[in-house]
Amino acid sequence: MMATLTSPEDRTDFADADRGFLGALHPCVVRDATGRVVWDNDAFDFLTGDRPPTVHPHLWRQARLCAKQGLYEVTDGVYQVRGLDLSNMTLIEGDRGVVVVDPLISTEVAAAALALYRRHRGDQRVTGVIYTHPHLDHFGGVAGIVTEDVPILAPAEFMRHAVAENVYAGGAMLRRGVYFTGASLAPGPRGLVGTGLGQTSSIGTLSLLPPTVDVTRTGQVETIDGVRFEFQLTPGTEAPAEMNFLLPERRALCLAENATHNLHNLLTLRGAVVRDARGWSRYLQEAITLFAGRADVAFASHHWPTWGHDRIVTLLADQRDVYAYLHDQTLRLMNQGHTPLEIAELVDLDPALDGTWYTHGFYGSVSHNVKAVYQRYLGWFDGNPAHLWEHPPVESARRYVDCMGGADAVLAAARRYRDDGDLRFAAQLLNHAVFADPASGEARELLADVYTRLGFGAENGPWRNFYLTGAQELRGGTRTGAVTVGSTGLADALSVEQILDSFAIRIDGPAAWPHAFTLDWDVTDAGQRHRSVLSHGAFVHWPHPDARASGGAGGRPGTGTETETGTGTGTGAADATVHLRRAQLLGLLGGQVAPDTLAVDGDATVLPRLLGLLDGPDPAFAIVTP
After folding, report:
1. pLDDT for 470-487, tens place per residue?
2. Taking the model in full, what pTM does it have?
3. If DSSP codes are grouped into helix, strand and coil, which group holds residue 552?
4. Residue 168: pLDDT above 90?
5. Class assignment of domain 494-612?
6. Which CATH superfamily does the domain covering 390-457 fall into?
7. d(CA 175, CA 171)
8. Pick the CATH number of 12-330 from 3.40.605.10, 1.10.3810.10, 3.60.15.30, 3.40.50.2000
9. Of the candidates 58, 55, 37, 33, which has an alpha carbon nearest to the alpha carbon of residue 46?
10. Strand order in the sheet with 517-523
11. Prior bond to 392 cis, omega within 30?
Protein backbone atom coordinates (compact mmCIF):
# COMPACT_ATOMS: atom_id res chain seq x y z
CA MET A 1 0.00 0.00 0.00
CA MET A 2 3.05 2.29 -0.01
CA ALA A 3 3.14 4.57 -3.06
CA THR A 4 5.83 6.76 -4.54
CA LEU A 5 4.93 10.44 -4.78
CA THR A 6 6.50 12.87 -7.22
CA SER A 7 6.81 15.46 -4.44
CA PRO A 8 6.30 13.96 -0.98
CA GLU A 9 7.19 17.24 0.71
CA ASP A 10 4.67 19.26 -1.30
CA ARG A 11 2.81 21.62 1.08
CA THR A 12 0.10 22.82 -1.31
CA ASP A 13 -2.65 20.91 0.47
CA PHE A 14 -1.65 22.41 3.82
CA ALA A 15 -1.74 25.92 2.36
CA ASP A 16 -5.17 25.25 0.84
CA ALA A 17 -6.49 23.71 4.05
CA ASP A 18 -5.42 26.83 6.00
CA ARG A 19 -6.55 29.39 3.44
CA GLY A 20 -9.37 31.67 4.56
CA PHE A 21 -9.18 30.63 8.22
CA LEU A 22 -11.30 32.88 10.43
CA GLY A 23 -11.38 31.12 13.78
CA ALA A 24 -11.57 27.76 15.53
CA LEU A 25 -13.88 26.33 18.17
CA HIS A 26 -12.09 26.22 21.53
CA PRO A 27 -12.39 23.75 23.06
CA CYS A 28 -13.55 21.72 20.06
CA VAL A 29 -15.76 19.51 22.21
CA VAL A 30 -19.54 19.30 21.70
CA ARG A 31 -21.95 17.77 24.22
CA ASP A 32 -25.60 16.79 24.05
CA ALA A 33 -28.31 17.91 26.48
CA THR A 34 -27.25 15.28 29.02
CA GLY A 35 -23.60 16.35 28.98
CA ARG A 36 -22.42 13.38 26.94
CA VAL A 37 -19.57 14.20 24.55
CA VAL A 38 -20.78 13.70 20.97
CA TRP A 39 -17.76 15.26 19.23
CA ASP A 40 -14.18 15.80 20.39
CA ASN A 41 -11.75 17.04 17.80
CA ASP A 42 -9.26 17.98 20.51
CA ALA A 43 -8.68 14.25 21.01
CA PHE A 44 -6.68 14.38 17.76
CA ASP A 45 -4.18 16.97 19.02
CA PHE A 46 -1.56 14.21 19.01
CA LEU A 47 -1.41 14.66 15.23
CA THR A 48 0.61 17.86 15.70
CA GLY A 49 3.57 15.78 16.85
CA ASP A 50 6.02 13.64 14.92
CA ARG A 51 4.68 10.60 13.12
CA PRO A 52 5.01 7.40 15.15
CA PRO A 53 5.93 4.08 13.53
CA THR A 54 2.40 2.79 14.18
CA VAL A 55 0.79 4.94 11.44
CA HIS A 56 1.42 4.86 7.70
CA PRO A 57 3.16 8.16 6.75
CA HIS A 58 0.59 9.02 4.08
CA LEU A 59 -2.36 8.38 6.37
CA TRP A 60 -0.68 10.48 9.07
CA ARG A 61 -0.38 13.37 6.59
CA GLN A 62 -4.01 13.02 5.52
CA ALA A 63 -5.20 12.86 9.14
CA ARG A 64 -3.32 16.07 9.99
CA LEU A 65 -5.10 17.83 7.14
CA CYS A 66 -8.54 16.46 8.02
CA ALA A 67 -8.15 17.36 11.72
CA LYS A 68 -7.88 21.09 10.99
CA GLN A 69 -11.02 22.70 12.38
CA GLY A 70 -12.77 26.03 12.33
CA LEU A 71 -14.59 28.49 10.08
CA TYR A 72 -13.02 29.21 6.69
CA GLU A 73 -13.87 31.67 3.94
CA VAL A 74 -13.98 29.89 0.57
CA THR A 75 -14.79 32.97 -1.49
CA ASP A 76 -16.90 36.09 -1.08
CA GLY A 77 -20.10 35.06 0.71
CA VAL A 78 -19.22 31.34 0.89
CA TYR A 79 -17.91 29.78 4.11
CA GLN A 80 -17.20 26.31 5.44
CA VAL A 81 -17.06 24.85 8.94
CA ARG A 82 -14.60 21.99 8.84
CA GLY A 83 -13.39 19.58 11.51
CA LEU A 84 -16.64 19.50 13.53
CA ASP A 85 -17.77 16.16 12.09
CA LEU A 86 -16.87 13.66 9.40
CA SER A 87 -18.16 16.10 6.77
CA ASN A 88 -18.14 19.85 6.10
CA MET A 89 -20.98 22.32 6.57
CA THR A 90 -21.03 24.98 3.87
CA LEU A 91 -22.78 28.33 4.45
CA ILE A 92 -23.74 30.62 1.57
CA GLU A 93 -24.81 34.14 2.44
CA GLY A 94 -27.95 35.50 0.79
CA ASP A 95 -30.05 38.64 0.94
CA ARG A 96 -31.72 37.90 4.30
CA GLY A 97 -29.61 35.19 5.88
CA VAL A 98 -27.59 32.11 5.05
CA VAL A 99 -28.24 28.92 3.07
CA VAL A 100 -26.74 25.83 4.71
CA VAL A 101 -25.38 22.97 2.60
CA ASP A 102 -25.02 19.51 4.18
CA PRO A 103 -25.71 20.09 7.91
CA LEU A 104 -23.43 17.36 9.30
CA ILE A 105 -24.49 14.18 11.16
CA SER A 106 -25.78 15.31 14.55
CA THR A 107 -28.01 18.19 15.61
CA GLU A 108 -25.60 19.19 18.38
CA VAL A 109 -22.57 19.60 16.12
CA ALA A 110 -24.66 21.32 13.45
CA ALA A 111 -25.82 23.85 16.04
CA ALA A 112 -22.22 24.35 17.22
CA ALA A 113 -21.04 24.86 13.64
CA LEU A 114 -23.75 27.45 12.99
CA ALA A 115 -22.88 29.22 16.26
CA LEU A 116 -19.21 29.37 15.20
CA TYR A 117 -20.22 30.93 11.88
CA ARG A 118 -22.45 33.47 13.63
CA ARG A 119 -19.67 34.41 16.02
CA HIS A 120 -17.65 35.67 13.07
CA ARG A 121 -20.34 36.70 10.56
CA GLY A 122 -23.22 37.91 12.70
CA ASP A 123 -26.51 36.38 13.82
CA GLN A 124 -27.73 35.33 10.37
CA ARG A 125 -30.95 33.31 10.17
CA VAL A 126 -31.02 30.11 8.14
CA THR A 127 -33.04 30.82 4.98
CA GLY A 128 -32.61 27.52 3.16
CA VAL A 129 -30.97 24.09 3.24
CA ILE A 130 -29.43 21.93 0.52
CA TYR A 131 -28.72 18.21 0.86
CA THR A 132 -26.23 17.17 -1.81
CA HIS A 133 -26.96 13.47 -1.30
CA PRO A 134 -28.68 11.01 1.09
CA HIS A 135 -25.78 9.88 3.27
CA LEU A 136 -26.24 10.49 6.97
CA ASP A 137 -23.32 12.88 7.33
CA HIS A 138 -25.03 15.29 4.94
CA PHE A 139 -28.45 15.65 6.54
CA GLY A 140 -28.54 14.23 10.09
CA GLY A 141 -27.92 17.55 11.87
CA VAL A 142 -30.60 19.54 10.06
CA ALA A 143 -32.93 19.94 13.06
CA GLY A 144 -30.08 21.59 14.93
CA ILE A 145 -30.07 24.57 12.54
CA VAL A 146 -33.63 24.84 11.18
CA THR A 147 -36.17 26.46 13.51
CA GLU A 148 -38.72 27.67 10.94
CA ASP A 149 -40.10 26.62 7.58
CA VAL A 150 -37.44 27.13 4.93
CA PRO A 151 -36.93 25.64 1.46
CA ILE A 152 -34.98 22.37 1.57
CA LEU A 153 -33.54 21.22 -1.75
CA ALA A 154 -32.28 17.74 -2.59
CA PRO A 155 -31.74 15.56 -5.65
CA ALA A 156 -34.72 13.58 -6.90
CA GLU A 157 -35.31 10.30 -5.01
CA PHE A 158 -33.41 11.61 -1.99
CA MET A 159 -35.88 10.33 0.61
CA ARG A 160 -36.21 6.88 -0.95
CA HIS A 161 -32.47 6.34 -0.95
CA ALA A 162 -31.91 7.87 2.49
CA VAL A 163 -34.27 5.25 3.91
CA ALA A 164 -33.11 2.36 1.74
CA GLU A 165 -29.47 2.82 2.74
CA ASN A 166 -29.86 3.83 6.37
CA VAL A 167 -32.86 1.78 7.53
CA TYR A 168 -33.48 -1.35 5.45
CA ALA A 169 -29.92 -2.66 5.90
CA GLY A 170 -29.20 -0.24 8.71
CA GLY A 171 -28.59 -2.84 11.41
CA ALA A 172 -25.78 -4.50 9.52
CA MET A 173 -24.39 -1.18 8.27
CA LEU A 174 -24.27 0.33 11.75
CA ARG A 175 -22.46 -2.71 13.13
CA ARG A 176 -19.95 -2.73 10.30
CA GLY A 177 -19.72 1.03 10.62
CA VAL A 178 -18.13 0.53 14.06
CA TYR A 179 -15.22 -1.11 12.23
CA PHE A 180 -15.34 1.32 9.30
CA THR A 181 -15.06 4.54 11.31
CA GLY A 182 -13.08 3.09 14.22
CA ALA A 183 -15.87 4.22 16.54
CA SER A 184 -14.73 2.00 19.40
CA LEU A 185 -11.02 2.86 19.03
CA ALA A 186 -9.43 5.46 21.29
CA PRO A 187 -7.85 8.33 19.30
CA GLY A 188 -4.09 8.01 19.37
CA PRO A 189 -1.04 6.70 17.51
CA ARG A 190 -2.01 3.09 18.28
CA GLY A 191 -5.73 3.59 17.62
CA LEU A 192 -7.93 5.98 15.68
CA VAL A 193 -6.18 8.57 13.53
CA GLY A 194 -9.01 9.17 11.05
CA THR A 195 -10.88 7.68 8.13
CA GLY A 196 -9.09 9.53 5.33
CA LEU A 197 -12.34 11.33 4.47
CA GLY A 198 -12.51 13.00 7.88
CA GLN A 199 -11.63 12.03 11.42
CA THR A 200 -14.69 10.04 12.48
CA SER A 201 -18.45 10.43 12.93
CA SER A 202 -20.19 12.44 15.63
CA ILE A 203 -22.53 10.42 17.86
CA GLY A 204 -25.26 12.91 18.74
CA THR A 205 -28.94 13.22 17.87
CA LEU A 206 -29.93 12.41 14.29
CA SER A 207 -32.72 14.08 12.36
CA LEU A 208 -34.19 14.30 8.88
CA LEU A 209 -36.50 16.97 7.50
CA PRO A 210 -37.96 16.02 4.09
CA PRO A 211 -36.99 18.12 1.09
CA THR A 212 -39.51 20.68 -0.12
CA VAL A 213 -37.99 21.07 -3.60
CA ASP A 214 -36.66 18.23 -5.77
CA VAL A 215 -33.88 18.82 -8.26
CA THR A 216 -34.95 16.65 -11.18
CA ARG A 217 -32.66 17.60 -14.05
CA THR A 218 -29.22 18.91 -14.90
CA GLY A 219 -29.40 22.59 -15.72
CA GLN A 220 -32.20 23.25 -13.25
CA VAL A 221 -31.82 26.69 -11.70
CA GLU A 222 -33.22 27.64 -8.32
CA THR A 223 -32.90 30.89 -6.39
CA ILE A 224 -32.79 30.75 -2.60
CA ASP A 225 -32.60 33.96 -0.59
CA GLY A 226 -31.42 35.82 -3.68
CA VAL A 227 -28.64 33.30 -4.44
CA ARG A 228 -28.73 31.58 -7.84
CA PHE A 229 -27.92 27.84 -7.88
CA GLU A 230 -27.32 25.87 -11.10
CA PHE A 231 -27.52 22.11 -10.57
CA GLN A 232 -25.98 19.00 -12.12
CA LEU A 233 -27.57 15.67 -11.23
CA THR A 234 -25.03 12.85 -10.78
CA PRO A 235 -27.07 9.75 -9.83
CA GLY A 236 -25.21 6.51 -9.20
CA THR A 237 -21.90 8.17 -8.42
CA GLU A 238 -20.89 8.46 -4.77
CA ALA A 239 -24.57 8.04 -3.85
CA PRO A 240 -27.64 6.77 -5.73
CA ALA A 241 -29.00 10.35 -5.70
CA GLU A 242 -26.41 13.12 -5.74
CA MET A 243 -25.85 16.53 -7.27
CA ASN A 244 -23.21 19.17 -7.86
CA PHE A 245 -24.04 22.86 -8.18
CA LEU A 246 -22.50 26.08 -9.41
CA LEU A 247 -22.90 29.50 -7.82
CA PRO A 248 -22.44 31.44 -11.08
CA GLU A 249 -22.33 34.94 -9.57
CA ARG A 250 -19.62 33.82 -7.14
CA ARG A 251 -17.79 31.52 -9.57
CA ALA A 252 -17.82 28.74 -6.97
CA LEU A 253 -18.45 25.07 -7.76
CA CYS A 254 -19.73 22.55 -5.20
CA LEU A 255 -18.64 19.01 -6.08
CA ALA A 256 -20.62 17.32 -3.27
CA GLU A 257 -18.68 14.09 -2.65
CA ASN A 258 -17.89 13.35 -6.28
CA ALA A 259 -14.34 14.78 -6.23
CA THR A 260 -12.58 14.99 -2.89
CA HIS A 261 -8.92 14.75 -1.89
CA ASN A 262 -8.70 10.96 -1.96
CA LEU A 263 -9.70 7.94 -3.99
CA HIS A 264 -13.29 7.30 -2.97
CA ASN A 265 -15.24 4.05 -2.58
CA LEU A 266 -17.09 2.20 -5.30
CA LEU A 267 -18.36 -0.03 -2.52
CA THR A 268 -17.90 1.30 0.99
CA LEU A 269 -16.66 -1.31 3.45
CA ARG A 270 -19.59 -0.64 5.78
CA GLY A 271 -21.86 -1.82 2.95
CA ALA A 272 -23.90 -0.06 0.26
CA VAL A 273 -25.18 -0.51 -3.26
CA VAL A 274 -22.26 -0.81 -5.68
CA ARG A 275 -21.58 2.50 -7.38
CA ASP A 276 -21.20 3.03 -11.12
CA ALA A 277 -17.55 3.83 -11.83
CA ARG A 278 -18.12 4.49 -15.52
CA GLY A 279 -21.06 6.80 -14.79
CA TRP A 280 -19.04 8.56 -12.09
CA SER A 281 -16.25 9.21 -14.58
CA ARG A 282 -18.67 10.58 -17.17
CA TYR A 283 -20.35 12.94 -14.70
CA LEU A 284 -16.94 14.33 -13.76
CA GLN A 285 -16.29 15.06 -17.43
CA GLU A 286 -19.73 16.65 -17.67
CA ALA A 287 -18.83 18.87 -14.71
CA ILE A 288 -15.72 20.04 -16.57
CA THR A 289 -17.80 20.81 -19.65
CA LEU A 290 -20.60 22.56 -17.77
CA PHE A 291 -18.78 24.46 -15.08
CA ALA A 292 -14.99 24.58 -15.24
CA GLY A 293 -14.86 27.74 -17.33
CA ARG A 294 -17.14 29.52 -14.86
CA ALA A 295 -15.49 28.55 -11.56
CA ASP A 296 -12.53 30.00 -9.73
CA VAL A 297 -12.88 27.71 -6.70
CA ALA A 298 -14.20 24.20 -6.21
CA PHE A 299 -15.27 22.96 -2.78
CA ALA A 300 -16.76 19.70 -1.59
CA SER A 301 -18.60 18.12 1.30
CA HIS A 302 -15.29 16.84 2.71
CA HIS A 303 -11.73 18.12 2.79
CA TRP A 304 -10.54 21.54 1.61
CA PRO A 305 -11.20 23.61 -1.53
CA THR A 306 -9.18 23.88 -4.74
CA TRP A 307 -8.57 27.34 -6.20
CA GLY A 308 -7.80 28.28 -9.79
CA HIS A 309 -9.27 27.19 -13.12
CA ASP A 310 -6.37 24.98 -14.19
CA ARG A 311 -6.14 23.22 -10.83
CA ILE A 312 -9.91 22.56 -10.79
CA VAL A 313 -9.80 21.04 -14.28
CA THR A 314 -6.79 18.89 -13.37
CA LEU A 315 -8.49 17.62 -10.21
CA LEU A 316 -11.67 16.71 -12.08
CA ALA A 317 -9.82 15.17 -15.02
CA ASP A 318 -7.51 13.09 -12.83
CA GLN A 319 -10.41 11.75 -10.78
CA ARG A 320 -12.37 11.14 -13.98
CA ASP A 321 -9.51 9.06 -15.31
CA VAL A 322 -9.12 7.06 -12.09
CA TYR A 323 -12.72 5.85 -12.03
CA ALA A 324 -12.73 5.17 -15.78
CA TYR A 325 -9.48 3.24 -15.48
CA LEU A 326 -10.66 1.11 -12.56
CA HIS A 327 -13.86 0.32 -14.43
CA ASP A 328 -12.32 -0.48 -17.79
CA GLN A 329 -9.32 -2.44 -16.55
CA THR A 330 -11.48 -4.56 -14.27
CA LEU A 331 -13.73 -5.44 -17.21
CA ARG A 332 -10.73 -6.12 -19.45
CA LEU A 333 -9.24 -8.55 -16.96
CA MET A 334 -12.64 -9.97 -16.03
CA ASN A 335 -13.25 -10.82 -19.68
CA GLN A 336 -9.90 -12.61 -19.75
CA GLY A 337 -11.13 -14.87 -16.98
CA HIS A 338 -9.51 -13.28 -13.93
CA THR A 339 -11.31 -13.41 -10.59
CA PRO A 340 -11.83 -10.46 -8.22
CA LEU A 341 -8.90 -11.45 -6.00
CA GLU A 342 -6.64 -11.78 -9.01
CA ILE A 343 -7.73 -8.47 -10.52
CA ALA A 344 -7.10 -6.72 -7.22
CA GLU A 345 -3.47 -7.82 -7.45
CA LEU A 346 -3.09 -6.94 -11.13
CA VAL A 347 -4.49 -3.40 -11.31
CA ASP A 348 -2.28 -0.42 -10.48
CA LEU A 349 -2.85 3.21 -11.33
CA ASP A 350 -0.65 5.03 -13.82
CA PRO A 351 2.37 6.26 -11.79
CA ALA A 352 1.65 9.75 -13.10
CA LEU A 353 -1.75 9.60 -11.36
CA ASP A 354 -0.30 7.95 -8.29
CA GLY A 355 1.97 10.95 -7.97
CA THR A 356 -0.92 13.14 -6.83
CA TRP A 357 -2.17 12.97 -3.26
CA TYR A 358 -5.86 13.10 -4.16
CA THR A 359 -5.77 9.79 -6.03
CA HIS A 360 -4.44 7.91 -3.01
CA GLY A 361 -6.45 5.27 -1.23
CA PHE A 362 -6.92 7.00 2.10
CA TYR A 363 -10.64 6.11 2.10
CA GLY A 364 -11.34 3.94 -0.91
CA SER A 365 -8.68 1.68 -2.39
CA VAL A 366 -7.77 0.23 -5.75
CA SER A 367 -7.94 -3.23 -4.20
CA HIS A 368 -11.51 -3.18 -2.95
CA ASN A 369 -12.78 -0.86 -5.70
CA VAL A 370 -11.94 -3.29 -8.50
CA LYS A 371 -13.70 -6.04 -6.56
CA ALA A 372 -16.73 -3.75 -6.45
CA VAL A 373 -16.68 -3.31 -10.23
CA TYR A 374 -16.55 -7.09 -10.62
CA GLN A 375 -19.45 -7.45 -8.20
CA ARG A 376 -21.52 -4.88 -10.09
CA TYR A 377 -21.28 -6.89 -13.29
CA LEU A 378 -20.92 -10.53 -12.22
CA GLY A 379 -21.91 -10.67 -8.55
CA TRP A 380 -20.36 -12.71 -5.74
CA PHE A 381 -19.58 -15.88 -7.76
CA ASP A 382 -16.23 -16.04 -9.56
CA GLY A 383 -17.31 -18.93 -11.79
CA ASN A 384 -15.24 -21.63 -10.08
CA PRO A 385 -17.56 -24.53 -9.14
CA ALA A 386 -15.49 -25.13 -6.01
CA HIS A 387 -16.77 -21.78 -4.72
CA LEU A 388 -20.41 -22.44 -5.60
CA TRP A 389 -21.38 -24.41 -2.50
CA GLU A 390 -18.66 -23.94 0.06
CA HIS A 391 -19.14 -24.71 3.71
CA PRO A 392 -19.87 -21.69 5.92
CA PRO A 393 -16.88 -20.20 7.77
CA VAL A 394 -16.93 -22.32 10.94
CA GLU A 395 -17.32 -25.64 9.14
CA SER A 396 -14.68 -24.70 6.55
CA ALA A 397 -12.29 -23.60 9.28
CA ARG A 398 -12.58 -26.85 11.19
CA ARG A 399 -11.81 -28.85 8.09
CA TYR A 400 -8.86 -26.65 7.09
CA VAL A 401 -7.37 -26.93 10.56
CA ASP A 402 -7.81 -30.70 10.46
CA CYS A 403 -6.12 -30.90 7.04
CA MET A 404 -3.21 -28.81 8.27
CA GLY A 405 -2.49 -31.13 11.16
CA GLY A 406 -4.46 -29.53 13.97
CA ALA A 407 -4.55 -26.25 15.83
CA ASP A 408 -0.95 -26.35 17.10
CA ALA A 409 0.39 -26.84 13.59
CA VAL A 410 -1.72 -23.96 12.27
CA LEU A 411 -0.51 -21.60 14.97
CA ALA A 412 3.12 -22.61 14.40
CA ALA A 413 2.78 -22.02 10.66
CA ALA A 414 1.05 -18.69 11.25
CA ARG A 415 3.90 -17.54 13.48
CA ARG A 416 6.40 -18.40 10.78
CA TYR A 417 4.50 -16.41 8.16
CA ARG A 418 4.06 -13.50 10.57
CA ASP A 419 7.75 -13.45 11.45
CA ASP A 420 8.65 -13.64 7.76
CA GLY A 421 6.50 -10.57 7.12
CA ASP A 422 3.65 -12.30 5.27
CA LEU A 423 0.95 -10.84 7.47
CA ARG A 424 -1.76 -11.37 4.88
CA PHE A 425 -1.42 -15.16 4.86
CA ALA A 426 -0.81 -15.28 8.61
CA ALA A 427 -4.20 -13.58 9.00
CA GLN A 428 -5.85 -16.15 6.70
CA LEU A 429 -4.41 -19.06 8.67
CA LEU A 430 -5.26 -17.58 12.05
CA ASN A 431 -8.77 -16.71 10.98
CA HIS A 432 -9.30 -20.45 10.35
CA ALA A 433 -7.80 -21.23 13.75
CA VAL A 434 -10.14 -18.82 15.54
CA PHE A 435 -13.25 -19.96 13.68
CA ALA A 436 -12.39 -23.61 14.29
CA ASP A 437 -11.87 -22.96 18.03
CA PRO A 438 -13.02 -19.50 19.15
CA ALA A 439 -12.19 -20.35 22.76
CA SER A 440 -8.47 -20.58 21.97
CA GLY A 441 -6.93 -17.56 23.65
CA GLU A 442 -3.62 -18.25 21.96
CA ALA A 443 -5.14 -18.16 18.48
CA ARG A 444 -7.13 -15.02 19.24
CA GLU A 445 -4.14 -13.14 20.62
CA LEU A 446 -1.92 -14.16 17.72
CA LEU A 447 -4.55 -13.04 15.20
CA ALA A 448 -5.03 -9.80 17.14
CA ASP A 449 -1.28 -9.18 16.89
CA VAL A 450 -1.33 -9.76 13.13
CA TYR A 451 -4.35 -7.48 12.68
CA THR A 452 -2.60 -4.79 14.73
CA ARG A 453 0.48 -4.93 12.52
CA LEU A 454 -1.64 -4.80 9.37
CA GLY A 455 -3.50 -1.80 10.77
CA PHE A 456 -0.32 0.07 11.64
CA GLY A 457 0.90 -0.37 8.06
CA ALA A 458 -2.31 0.64 6.27
CA GLU A 459 -2.44 3.80 4.15
CA ASN A 460 -6.23 3.47 4.00
CA GLY A 461 -8.11 4.84 7.02
CA PRO A 462 -11.02 2.35 7.04
CA TRP A 463 -8.62 -0.56 6.47
CA ARG A 464 -6.67 0.54 9.56
CA ASN A 465 -9.90 0.88 11.53
CA PHE A 466 -11.14 -2.56 10.46
CA TYR A 467 -7.87 -4.24 11.43
CA LEU A 468 -7.51 -2.45 14.77
CA THR A 469 -11.18 -2.88 15.73
CA GLY A 470 -10.90 -6.57 14.87
CA ALA A 471 -7.85 -6.84 17.15
CA GLN A 472 -9.72 -4.98 19.90
CA GLU A 473 -12.71 -7.31 19.74
CA LEU A 474 -10.56 -10.43 19.63
CA ARG A 475 -9.00 -9.30 22.90
CA GLY A 476 -12.01 -7.77 24.62
CA GLY A 477 -15.13 -9.02 22.89
CA THR A 478 -17.86 -6.96 21.25
CA ARG A 479 -19.20 -3.98 23.11
CA THR A 480 -22.84 -3.70 24.10
CA GLY A 481 -24.97 -0.62 23.71
CA ALA A 482 -24.36 -0.25 19.98
CA VAL A 483 -26.54 2.14 18.04
CA THR A 484 -29.61 0.61 16.41
CA VAL A 485 -31.65 1.95 13.53
CA GLY A 486 -34.62 2.60 15.79
CA SER A 487 -32.52 4.76 18.10
CA THR A 488 -31.09 6.96 15.36
CA GLY A 489 -34.09 9.24 14.77
CA LEU A 490 -34.27 8.24 11.10
CA ALA A 491 -37.36 6.12 11.74
CA ASP A 492 -39.41 9.29 12.14
CA ALA A 493 -38.87 10.04 8.46
CA LEU A 494 -40.24 6.71 7.21
CA SER A 495 -43.33 6.73 5.02
CA VAL A 496 -46.16 4.29 5.75
CA GLU A 497 -44.94 2.10 2.89
CA GLN A 498 -41.40 2.10 4.29
CA ILE A 499 -42.61 1.21 7.79
CA LEU A 500 -44.45 -1.77 6.35
CA ASP A 501 -41.28 -2.66 4.40
CA SER A 502 -39.49 -2.65 7.76
CA PHE A 503 -42.03 -5.16 9.11
CA ALA A 504 -41.34 -7.38 6.10
CA ILE A 505 -37.57 -7.56 6.56
CA ARG A 506 -38.00 -8.57 10.22
CA ILE A 507 -40.38 -11.51 9.67
CA ASP A 508 -38.90 -14.82 10.88
CA GLY A 509 -39.68 -16.71 7.67
CA PRO A 510 -39.66 -20.33 8.89
CA ALA A 511 -41.70 -19.40 11.97
CA ALA A 512 -44.22 -17.71 9.69
CA TRP A 513 -44.72 -20.67 7.33
CA PRO A 514 -47.84 -22.02 9.10
CA HIS A 515 -49.56 -18.62 9.09
CA ALA A 516 -51.67 -17.05 6.35
CA PHE A 517 -53.81 -13.97 6.80
CA THR A 518 -54.81 -10.62 5.30
CA LEU A 519 -54.46 -7.53 7.42
CA ASP A 520 -55.58 -4.05 6.40
CA TRP A 521 -53.97 -0.92 7.82
CA ASP A 522 -56.10 2.22 8.09
CA VAL A 523 -53.57 4.96 8.84
CA THR A 524 -55.93 7.76 9.75
CA ASP A 525 -53.66 10.79 10.02
CA ALA A 526 -51.84 9.93 6.79
CA GLY A 527 -55.11 9.36 4.92
CA GLN A 528 -53.78 6.04 3.66
CA ARG A 529 -55.12 2.50 3.62
CA HIS A 530 -52.84 -0.43 2.87
CA ARG A 531 -53.50 -4.14 2.50
CA SER A 532 -50.92 -6.66 3.70
CA VAL A 533 -50.75 -10.42 3.34
CA LEU A 534 -48.65 -12.97 5.17
CA SER A 535 -48.25 -16.02 2.96
CA HIS A 536 -45.56 -18.73 2.83
CA GLY A 537 -43.44 -16.70 5.25
CA ALA A 538 -43.51 -13.57 3.05
CA PHE A 539 -45.13 -10.33 4.21
CA VAL A 540 -46.24 -8.31 1.17
CA HIS A 541 -48.27 -5.12 1.07
CA TRP A 542 -49.78 -2.65 -1.38
CA PRO A 543 -52.22 0.29 -1.44
CA HIS A 544 -55.68 -1.03 -0.64
CA PRO A 545 -57.90 -1.65 -3.69
CA ASP A 546 -60.40 0.66 -1.99
CA ALA A 547 -57.94 3.47 -1.31
CA ARG A 548 -60.40 5.55 0.70
CA ALA A 549 -58.92 5.75 4.20
CA SER A 550 -60.62 5.73 7.61
CA GLY A 551 -63.65 3.82 8.65
CA GLY A 552 -63.47 0.79 6.35
CA ALA A 553 -64.95 -2.31 7.92
CA GLY A 554 -62.57 -5.20 8.37
CA GLY A 555 -64.93 -7.55 6.59
CA ARG A 556 -65.28 -5.46 3.43
CA PRO A 557 -64.22 -7.52 0.38
CA GLY A 558 -61.08 -6.19 -1.23
CA THR A 559 -62.27 -6.69 -4.81
CA GLY A 560 -65.88 -7.71 -4.47
CA THR A 561 -65.10 -11.10 -6.04
CA GLU A 562 -64.39 -13.17 -2.93
CA THR A 563 -65.43 -13.20 0.71
CA GLU A 564 -63.05 -15.92 1.90
CA THR A 565 -60.56 -14.97 4.61
CA GLY A 566 -57.29 -16.48 5.82
CA THR A 567 -56.14 -17.74 2.41
CA GLY A 568 -53.12 -15.47 2.10
CA THR A 569 -54.11 -14.36 -1.41
CA GLY A 570 -55.27 -10.92 -0.37
CA THR A 571 -58.16 -10.98 -2.84
CA GLY A 572 -61.00 -11.50 -0.38
CA ALA A 573 -62.11 -9.82 2.78
CA ALA A 574 -59.46 -8.90 5.30
CA ASP A 575 -59.14 -11.06 8.40
CA ALA A 576 -58.70 -7.84 10.35
CA THR A 577 -58.40 -4.10 9.89
CA VAL A 578 -56.39 -2.02 12.34
CA HIS A 579 -57.11 1.71 12.68
CA LEU A 580 -54.16 3.73 13.89
CA ARG A 581 -52.00 6.79 13.40
CA ARG A 582 -48.62 6.69 11.64
CA ALA A 583 -46.76 7.16 14.94
CA GLN A 584 -48.62 4.15 16.39
CA LEU A 585 -47.64 2.06 13.36
CA LEU A 586 -44.03 3.01 13.96
CA GLY A 587 -44.48 2.22 17.65
CA LEU A 588 -45.75 -1.26 16.81
CA LEU A 589 -42.55 -1.91 14.86
CA GLY A 590 -40.39 -0.69 17.72
CA GLY A 591 -42.36 -2.46 20.45
CA GLN A 592 -43.50 0.75 22.17
CA VAL A 593 -47.21 0.28 21.25
CA ALA A 594 -49.20 -2.75 22.43
CA PRO A 595 -51.66 -4.22 19.90
CA ASP A 596 -54.49 -4.33 22.46
CA THR A 597 -54.41 -0.51 22.69
CA LEU A 598 -55.51 -0.14 19.06
CA ALA A 599 -58.93 -0.28 17.41
CA VAL A 600 -59.22 -3.51 15.41
CA ASP A 601 -62.15 -4.76 13.33
CA GLY A 602 -62.34 -8.50 12.71
CA ASP A 603 -60.01 -11.15 14.15
CA ALA A 604 -58.22 -9.48 17.06
CA THR A 605 -55.55 -12.21 17.15
CA VAL A 606 -54.08 -11.35 13.73
CA LEU A 607 -52.03 -8.31 14.80
CA PRO A 608 -50.46 -10.01 17.87
CA ARG A 609 -49.65 -13.04 15.71
CA LEU A 610 -47.86 -10.79 13.22
CA LEU A 611 -45.90 -9.01 15.93
CA GLY A 612 -44.92 -12.35 17.46
CA LEU A 613 -43.21 -13.29 14.20
CA LEU A 614 -40.88 -10.27 14.14
CA ASP A 615 -37.19 -11.03 14.60
CA GLY A 616 -35.03 -8.31 16.14
CA PRO A 617 -31.64 -7.29 14.73
CA ASP A 618 -28.45 -7.92 16.73
CA PRO A 619 -26.56 -4.59 16.99
CA ALA A 620 -23.38 -6.31 18.23
CA PHE A 621 -23.15 -9.44 16.06
CA ALA A 622 -19.78 -11.16 15.86
CA ILE A 623 -17.46 -10.29 12.98
CA VAL A 624 -13.96 -11.60 13.77
CA THR A 625 -15.28 -14.63 15.67
CA PRO A 626 -18.07 -17.09 14.85
Report:
1. 999 999 988 754 454 454
2. 0.89
3. coil
4. no
5. alpha beta
6. Alkyl sulfatase, dimerisation domain (1.25.40.880)
7. 6
8. 3.60.15.30
9. 55
10. 538-543, 528-535, 517-523, 576-580, 599-602
11. no
